[in-house]
Amino acid sequence: MCPKPFPHFATAAIHAGQEPDPLTGAVIPPIYQTSTFTQHGVETLKAGYEYSRGANPTRTALEQQLAALEHGDAGFAFASGMAAEDALLRATLRPGDTVIAAAESYGGTHRLLTQIYARWGVNTVFVSPQDTAALEQALDSHRARVVWLETPTNPLLSIIDIRAWSEISHAHGALVVVDNTFASPALQTPLDLGADAVVHSTTKYIGGHSDVLGGAVITSTAFWEDQPLTELIRFQQFAGGAVAGPQDCFLTSRGLKTLAVRMRQHSDNAAVVAGWLTEQPQVAEVYYPGLEQHPGHSIAAQQMRGYGGMITFRVRGGEQAARTVAESTALFGLSVSLGGVESLISHPATMTHGSTAGTAQAPDRDLVRLSVGIEAVEDLVDDLQQTLAAVPLHHAGHVSSRA
Ligand SMILES: *Cc1c(COP(=O)(O)O)cnc(C)c1O
Asked: How far is the CA of 123 from the centre of ligand 1 (A)?
């Protein structure tokens, strides 16, 4: 159980789990680069630590920080976001179970469910993120055990009403998991809205500097099959062993301390870029939850504390024009991943969502996704301006935007 002594996010981000080292006074918790711990006697541990797969003090520091920021019962750090998702699913599912997942979930989540879990007898049903009626219907006909959602979605930045989905799913006895990677706990705390567990790719906004892979599960006090969910995850983490190492935990903790200021700047910059994009003749449509015309805007305004740094837009001229845009920026790096201080651009259909090709989850090929960094926003707009100028304007308005 993690204490919550810090009422404000920015303070908790810096202090939760980060007490100075009692031995030396070091302000920053040391990197305990050790696999094992000597013991006072047989079955008598010195400070509760025995072997680093079970627990390591550098990991504990990060896990307490994560639990405090997501308002959870406990946090668990994994080697990657996918390792965290896999641990959560294996701890809660059995062969024969069904998962309901919001369509537009992360491509890797889609791959894990349809290509790995399917072989272990777990069936996944995808439902539209906009449609609570479809969720109810799917729950009525499938008796699903786990409902998995991600909001804002990737790449279309659709907004799912976490409170409504949680209420409906709980009425059917399902466990509700939210992938909170895109919003980060600075902007959204799903456990406060009724979710039972949160997962993260800490590789993204939480780490924030594109220098470390990691994942996390944060649990509520919910029970699952008569056991605390926290203990099920703790056991799975120990038994499965996909833990984050001490160096990676240190880097992730260090990134997390500045999350509040970073997310403010990401959101401010993205608001400017999204507004500017809506005025460009080469752009057919802009998806950003901070725009008033975005269909999820009012729910986002209720459940989020800012709209984040991710923007997707449709380029007139179809796939070729979208590829040209993605390949023509100078400052935005052509790259998968997101959430770092530097701006990135990608073509979701061929890059992040390649594993969904040929399925109903595959994104349209005229989409371009931006991870707007925290550089000077004028420089970002200038870069996009010269980039869009490379798209032949005779395409604008003539070619179907859904090529
Ligand atoms: C990147 C990502 C993941 C997977 O995380 P890794 O750290 O790459 O394993 C899961 N969900 C979302 C939304 C992501 O963006």
From this structure: 21
**pLDDT, position 263:** 98
| Least reliable range by pLDDT among 175-179, 206-210, 275-279, 394-398 | 394-398
How far is Cα 165 from Cα 101, in angstroms, rounded to an integer? 11
Contact 303, 354 (CB under 8 A): no
Residue positions annotated with a catalytic role? 53, 106, 179, 204
What's the maximum distance between 2 C-alpha atoms anywhere in the chain?
79
Tokens linked to 369: 């996704």
Task: Give yes or no on whether 9-256 and 261-388 have one common fold.
Answer: no
Q: What's the rounded Cα separation, in Å, for the pair 384 and 365?
A: 19
Handedness of CA 7, 11, 12, 13 (dihedral sign): positive
Domain boundaries, the chain: 9-256, 261-388
Q: Is the pLDDT of residue 399 over 90?
A: no
One of 3.90.230.10, 3.40.1190.20, 3.40.50.150, 3.90.1150.10 is the CATH number of 261-388, namely 3.90.1150.10
End-to-end, the C-alpha distance of the chain in Å comes to 52
State the distance from the centre of ligand 1 to the C-alpha of 203, rounded, in angstroms: 7
The strand pair at 310-315 and 283-287 is best described as antiparallel
User: pLDDT tens-digit profile of 341-374?
Assistant: 999 999 999 998 887 888 888 899 999 999 999 9
pLDDT in tens, 158-178: 999 999 999 999 999 999 999
Cis-peptide, bond into residue 152, ω within 30° of zero? yes
203 lines ligand 1 (CB under 6 A): yes
- Assess contact for 146 and 92: CB atoms under 8 A: yes
For residues 50 and 72, give the distance between their C-alpha atoms in angstroms, rounded to a whole number. Answer: 25
Model's pTM, two decimal places?
0.95
- For residues 325 and 346, the answer to whether their CB atoms sit within 8 Å is no
* Ligand 1 pocket check for 82: Cβ under 6 Å: yes
- The mean predicted confidence, pLDDT, of the chain is 94
Q: Which fold has domain 9-256?
A: Aspartate Aminotransferase; domain 2 (3.40.640)
pLDDT-derived band at 394 (thresholds 50, 70, 90) equals: low
pLDDT at 353: 84
**112 alpha carbon to ligand 1 midpoint, in Å?**
12
